[in-house]
Amino acid sequence: MTTAVPDDGSCPDGHAEPLWSEWRRPRPTAAQQRHDIWSGLAVTASAVVMTVLVNSMGVFASGVAPHLAEQFAWSVAVTLPLVLRRRFPSTVLLVVSVLFIAGQARQVADNLVPSIALFIALYSVGAWAQDRTAARRVRLGVIAVMFCWLAYGLVRLLVHNAPPFENAAGPLDPMLASVLYGIVFNLLFFLSAYFFGGMAWLSARRQAELAHRAEQLRRSQEQNTRGAIVAERVRIARDLHDVVAHHVSVMGVQAGAARRVLDRDRELTREALRTIEDTARTAIGELRGLLGVLRAEPSDDVLDVRDGETSSPGLDQLPELATMAERAGVAVDHGIYGDPRPIPEGVALSAYRVVQESLTNVVKHAGARRADVRVRFLETSLEIEVSDDGRGRTGRPERSGFGLVGMRERVAVHGGELEAGPRRDGGYLVRARFPA
């Protein structure tokens, strides 16, 4: 079963592709209908003027013409239906065809404008009829009837009122040439109306298809834009969380340590305050780098450097994370295994953020004394592992918050996998694997 296509060429359900072979041209607009009225009246006025001119010249192709008033009536009757040619094309063609033959049977003097009206009516069916099968049958039927009428007229003319052919000088028989001329002329006349009407309908269908494609493209662009905006918001939120949460956690731990030993150990207090200062400077540097990326033009490929920090930290900065965690009271072992190789900047940044968030959780929640950071360059992947000897699941908050979600999103962007959970022998393990 096929799905009908709406008159405007849109999808029936808003999603499926229209069946353009069953497309129906929309009904004429109010402006087009007004144009038909004025153009139909113009053709009618032309028919009246031509009738006056032909009668004034006394050139009657079919002998004696009827009274001038009757000729006016025939001219108006044949041409006036054109005011509805786009609203009821098939009906207008049938009416014009019948009146055209009847007018010729009455030997109306002017034959030019009625022929033009017949051409326009035949063209309009090809260009505007909704039912294409009925439109084709109506046009072919009218053409067949017109050729039968032409044959009758030629036979009647040649039998009852044969022209003298006094000045004939061509190689063909004058009567044969007259018949061939009438056939060829009318053939070109009707085929032109048929062809151009069909081309107008095909052109309208192509325009509707192009408009549909353009609308699809516009909607797709809107969806892509909305998706890009959401993705960018998530990325910004993730980066801000990674930068702020880690450094603020370290500063909080150091501030607490400084408060507890302020009156007993001035040297340890100074060390804690120095760590807070360095951590704050590092955090500001990373935030400036992040803001620099947000403010940069899309064509800018240069990393923004502020206070010695780049906007895209990577594997080379992992020892600095270990140092800050150690200053917060957690001993960190950092090791690299396998043959190091160049890593894409995006993967390196994600790996850095995974380690940063993991160490932040170790400092804040685990109550651990030691942590182990391992970077493994495997044959088909890069593996990042952070483990600790803390309280495991009981040391984690009841709700994962944004940290674990952010890590999963970062790893998923590169088609990697993330494992996070308590270890069997105590502590917590985070393992991220990025495909090489």
UniProtKB/TrEMBL annotation:
GO cellular component, one term: membrane
Molecular-function GO terms, alphabetical: ATP binding; phosphorelay sensor kinase activity; protein dimerization activity
Disordered: annotated span: 1-24
Domain of life of the source: Bacteria
SMART domains assigned: HATPase_c
Pfam families associated with the record: DUF7134, HATPase_c, HisKA_3
EC numbers: 2.7.13.3
Domain Histidine kinase: from-to ranges: 353-436
InterPro entries xrefs: DUF7134 (IPR055558), HATPase_C_sf (IPR036890), HATPase_dom (IPR003594), His_kinase_dom (IPR005467), Sensor_HK_TwoCompSys (IPR050482), Sig_transdc_His_kin_sub3_dim/P (IPR011712)
Membrane-spanning intervals of the chain: 37-58, 112-129, 141-159, 179-202
Catalytic activity: ATP + protein L-histidine = ADP + protein N-phospho-L-histidine
Keyword list, A-Z: ATP-binding, Kinase, Membrane, Nucleotide-binding, Phosphoprotein, Transferase, Transmembrane, Transmembrane helix, Two-component regulatory system
PANTHER family named in the record: NITRATE/NITRITE SENSOR PROTEIN NARX-RELATED, NITRATE_NITRITE SENSOR PROTEIN NARQ
Name recorded for this polypeptide: histidine kinase
Organism: Saccharothrix tamanrassetensis
